[in-house]
Amino acid sequence: MAWLRSAFQDELDGVTATLVELSTIVTDSMVKATHSLLTASVTEAEEVIASDDRVDRIAHELDSRIIDIIARQQPVASDLRALITALRMSADLERMGDMAHHVAKITRLRHPAAAIPSELLLTMEEMGKSVKIVADKCTEVIADRDLNKALEVEVDDDEVDRLHRKLFTSLLDESWPHGTETAIDITLIGRYYERFADHAVSIARRVYFLVTGTYSDKKD
Amino acid sequence: MAWLRSAFQDELDGVTATLVELSTIVTDSMVKATHSLLTASVTEAEEVIASDDRVDRIAHELDSRIIDIIARQQPVASDLRALITALRMSADLERMGDMAHHVAKITRLRHPAAAIPSELLLTMEEMGKSVKIVADKCTEVIADRDLNKALEVEVDDDEVDRLHRKLFTSLLDESWPHGTETAIDITLIGRYYERFADHAVSIARRVYFLVTGTYSDKKD
């Protein structure tokens, strides 16, 4: 005889599945936004910009579904906390989509010129790879609630911070030849990648707290 | 005989009172952060930086209280939506506190030098005034749920955007004499003020939606 699962548990699993879907979409968007930046591809940039509405719509529908579940099922204790945490993760993921969108808009703004000077391409490529590592692991943490992976996300984010500092160091080099406009672009792009990864770290911390009831860090 | 209010209504009013308190604190923090920037006052900057922990603590306690109310009272329909909206407003306000904190950290980083070159002081002062107008009205909207004021917040935010563009125009002037480091500072400071005001606009929109069930805008 099959093990009977409650309808409520199915609804919670459905919420998790949508969060995983959202996390996958925003990760793909940031990968594509990075590629658009490195290759000055306005076609890819337009795809990222167009896909942001889809992220917003999925997040919005998910939020309505979560509030509906709370109203109908009236969960308490850990189930209620899980649903509130899902609402917060939905907001983090929606914001990660916004960051990919912002990066793609800089590609489009500077097209047909490249926003990134050639000597910074390698650092930006590394930045793209390091935020993908953080975001992929964040997706796994949402799906599996694996606490070791949740802790790894924080460590992986250190590499994003290191590359962010490296970008600033390049801008501040006295021989910086690219003018203020490019410096502004790089400053904002660096901030968008950092914030993207910060939201992934927030999600990992939320899962850690949900499972253990304790914080994985000293501050947020 | 006195009109009898429900304990639940008192709890909702308590939530609103704490949101108003938080909104007042983060507005004061941004005013002080602006003053620290304009006068290169590291003392004021330190006060803003120290007060951020208090904002985080109040927001955190409020979130726990809201979740506890949902668990005990099991509200449905408009009461549940009001409590979920309060959770989101708490997150917006906490983030507004972070923005004031970030501005104050730039004052401290550049001290004893001024982060803002003298020819931009007036624009920054206007920026500080315009975000205070937005934030003060946001506090009123939380307290009164006044829909006209909620719509005004969006219009007032246009002035913040105008000043933000003016800052960038100054940076991009070919005769910009202050080097890349100052350009990076101004780029980030401009972004912090813009985000601070964006969160106030989000709060006004959340209140509008809560009261009317319709959106005050086309996109968020």
Entry keywords:
homodimer, 220 residues, mainly alpha, Methane Monooxygenase Hydroxylase, Chain G, domain 1
Number of strands of chain A: 0
Largest interface by Cβ-Cβ < 8 Å: A-B, 25 and 26 residues
Order of helices and strands of chain A: HHHHHH
Shape of chain A: elongated
Q: Please report which band the strand proportion of chain A falls in: under 5%, 5-15%, 15-25%, 25-35%, 35-45% or over 45%.
A: under 5%
Poorly predicted segments of chain A: none
Can you characterise this structure?
With 220 residues, chain A is an all-alpha fold. Chain A has a single domain (8-212), classed as Phosphate transport system protein phou homolog 2, domain 2 (Methane Monooxygenase Hydroxylase, Chain G, domain 1, Up-down Bundle). Helix content of chain A is 83%, strand content 0%. In chain A, helix 3 packs antiparallel against helix 6, helix 4 runs parallel beside helix 6 and helix 5 (147-172) runs antiparallel to helix 6. The first copy, chain A, starts with 6 loop residues before the first helix and ends in an 8-residue tail after the last helix. The A-B interface holds A 56, 67, 70-71, 74, 76-77, 80-81, 84, 87-88, 91, 168, 171-172, 176, 180-181, 183-184, 187-188, 191, 220 and B 56, 67, 70-71, 74, 76-77, 80-81, 84, 87-88, 91, 168, 171-172, 176, 180-181, 183-184, 187-188, 191, 219-220.
